[in-house]
User: Fold Beta-phosphoglucomutase from Clostridium manihotivorum.
Amino acid sequence: MDVKCCIFDLDGVIVDTAKYHYLAWKRLANELGFDFTEKDNERLKGVSRMASLEILLSIGKVSLSEEEKVELAAKKNAWYVEYISKMNKDEILPGVENFLSTLREAGIKVSLGSASKNSMMILDNLELTRYFDAIIDGNKVSEAKPDPEVFLLGAEELHISPEFCVVFEDAEAGIEAATRAGMRSIGIGSPETLGKATKVIPNLENSDLNLLQF
Ligand code: BG6
Ligand code: MG
Assistant:
């Protein structure tokens, strides 16, 4: 097996934070006077905070100044942080902790590759921080997925060439970012949306090192 590093997206791969993002965005939409459905929320997965706000405002046909947008994004984030601050280990998705532990035992490096600026708090609340050799998140990158920056920085920090890295992702933009980084990818979800991944599995339940045989 030639895999030396596994890079994990956070939201939707390690933990289901989409429901909290949804609650906070919906609250903001309602305050602005329009509705925001769970189907609308699908469009925000993997998308950065400011880009998500742009999509939300376009759904509500609301136009605002840059200053107002920054204010609303901060408001949404304060609500989101309120929700995620109550999260604990029980919310880790099935199979994740066991797989992280298997990777470490096998000497395979583990990195985070997430767009979120709240990733440290989430990993700490889930008690998963100690599994990660590198943490690359929204605070460290300037380009959003599908740009490969977030994954390339992880490989660079661990001094591992991209060809030996495998990315775990639930978003189409994340799979594209992995491909553009020259890495293999494992899509977590349905083959319909993640068909471009090297391999697609429904979740990480019962995963072992066989998953890294391509
Ligand atoms: C991604 C989520 O991981 O992070 C997006 O899939 C989210 O929904 C983005 O908008 C940014 O997150 P945060 O926590 O920095 O607002
Ligand atoms: Mg995700």
User: Anything to note?
Assistant: The mean pLDDT is 96.
